[in-house]
Amino acid sequence: MRVFSANLLALLFLCTCACVLYVWSRLENRLEIHKRKVQELGFKSVHVERSSDLSAKTFRALLAVPAVQKLYFSNRIDFRNVSDGNPVTSANIHYSTSGSEMKSTESEPADQIIEDGIFWSERIEHHLPVAFSGEHARAWRHKALGSRVVSLEPGCGRTSNQLATFSDGTKACVRYGINADQVQGETLSYYLASLLGITNIPPLVLSELDGENEQWASVRRKIDSLQWSGRAIVSLTEWIVNLTGVVTPEPLRQESIGLHPFQEELGNKTMAELLELMQWTDLILFDYLTANFDRLVSNLFSLQWDSRVMERDTSNLLRTPRGDLVFIDNEAGLVHGYRVLDMWEKYHSSVLGSVCLFRRRTAQRVIDMHRSRDTRTRLLQVYRDNEPLAADLGFLSEEHARILQNRVDTLYKHILRCKGKYSQL
Ligand SMILES: Nc1ncnc2c1ncn2[C@@H]1O[C@H](COP(=O)(O)OP(=O)(O)OP(=O)(O)O)[C@@H](O)[C@H]1O
Ligand SMILES: [Mg+2]
User: Fold this and answer.
1) Dihedral sign computed on CA atoms, order 216, 214, 391, 411
2) 236 pairs with which residues across the strands?
3) Which ranges constitute the DSSP H helices of 86-212?
4) Domain coordinates of the chain in residue numbers?
5) Secretion signal: which residues (predicted)?
6) Please, which residues have CB within 8 angstroms of residue 411's CB and are 6 or more apart in sequence?
7) Of 13, 78, 185, 186, whose CB has the highest number of CB atoms within 10 Å?
8) Which CATH architecture group holds 134-238?
């Protein structure tokens, strides 16, 4: 009997211990979830504060943006610890170039969207088709240079842009540019995108309007009537059919919290929505580097007098029926954009600050260009190797090349900050 009572007591004791342990672990879980929510809310409130500044109607209020941004990043990250303890490495980077149709309308499993804290997962990347492959671009450039232009007509925006038809019936947008800076900006932006592995810009090639150039012989009169100089170098960009407008996605509007690696929020999205957001993350990095204000940034500026601007199509951004974003009209990038940086930098920084999610390959290229400090050399090389008229059109000035490298460095630091902030979550 005594033995039986002792066993019963021991059993009761064990059960009590198990119950205490269970209750304790549940409490810990709840505490963790609560902590995370509080962090997110704190983050949201700062962002909303920043956003409301942006939507303010006066330019004076817009000038306050960087200060708030500083507050937003401060006291949260030990910068040196991030770079020492969590280096972003190139290990395990593998990109599929195959892609597939973006048709799914079902939500994607939340835990398979993000990898290593701040990167779109390889699983999602795998579904992203290459918009314009290197091979396609080379073939198009070759064909475009060897084809006669048989007509020039409106259809590519301003009169300084004309829709050209080649003798085989295919088309291109010809950009004359108000000055050589614009043609340079357009061309160098294209080659910078190719350095970054961003394939969303249609193939581009330069051509001289020169009287000797047989390519323009059939439209010589039209060129004269447009008052285009015979010595000018113009850019030709492949004409893409069936493009439609693109509205800025909700997470990137000024009233939103931005695009951050929160599984809970991304988990509600379909594959098509995720793939579009992924392309936007590339676009924002690209426009930051080139200081191109003629897309999302000009919308932010317009908010001062047009509170619904974000609900309309974004300038110079289009979409193919397959869902590829097409970044057109990059004339403001690199040259003109750098010249007017004083005016636009607040907006560029603000847009960049709203994104902490990246394509691994794009981030890796930025990291490489930061570490080797050779952005100018790389850009010059890819430009010279692919563009026969590179020497005639010219390249970035020393000053602009320095600005580009500085922007690469700033972007690198931004990526590290994001990594420090989100990889422990
Ligand atoms: N490569 C292209 N393929 C197809 N359509 C194009 C292409 N480039 C330009 N377009 C068409 O021409 C329009 C104007 O193009 P673009 O932005 O280059 O010129 P713009 O003079 O700056 O005009 P906007 O002031 O509308 O921006 C685009 O919205 C698009 O409809
Ligand atoms: Mg335009």
Assistant:
1) positive
2) 174, 205
3) 122-125, 134-145, 180-196
4) 51-130+242-422, 134-238
5) 1-25
6) 285, 288, 289, 352, 366, 370
7) 185
8) 2-Layer Sandwich (3.30)
Q: Which of 234, 204, 233 is nearest to 386 (CA)?
A: 204
290 neighbors 139 (Cβ within 8 angstroms)? no
Collapsed DSSP state (helix, strand, coil) of residue 232: coil
pLDDT of residue 180: 85
Ligand 1 within 6 A of 237 CB? yes
Considering the chain, what is the average pLDDT of its residues? 80
Residue nearest to atom 9 of ligand 1 (CA): 156
Tokens coding 189: 């932006």
Residue with CA nearest ligand 1 atom 19: 157
Instruction: Among 136, 141, 156, name the best residue to mutate to test ligand 1's pocket (greatest count of ligand atoms within 8 A of Cβ).
Output: 156
Q: Which protein residue has the closest C-alpha to ligand 1 atom 23?
A: 157
In this structure, what token pair is assigned to residue 311? 């609900």
Beta-strand ranges (E) seen in 156-279 are: 161-166, 171-175, 204-208, 233-238, 244-247
> Cα(209)–Cα(195) distance, rounded to whole angstroms?
28
Q: CA end-to-end span of the chain, whole Å?
A: 55
Is 163 a pocket residue for ligand 1 (Cβ < 6 Å)? no
Q: What is the largest CA-CA distance in the chain?
A: 116
Q: How far is the CA of 149 from the centre of ligand 2 (A)?
A: 23
Indicate the pTM of the whole model: 0.77
pLDDT in tens, 79-121: 223 232 232 222 222 222 233 444 455 666 556 899 999 999 9
Rounded Cα gap, residues 174 and 176, in angstroms: 6
d(CA 245, CA 313): 5
Instruction: State the distance from the centre of ligand 2 to the C-alpha of 20, rounded, in angstroms.
Output: 66
Ligand 1 atom nearest to 241, measured from its CA: 4
Give the closest ligand to the alpha carbon of residue 235.
Answer: 1
Tell me the Cα Rg of the chain: 26
Starting from the CA of residue 156, give the closest ligand: 1
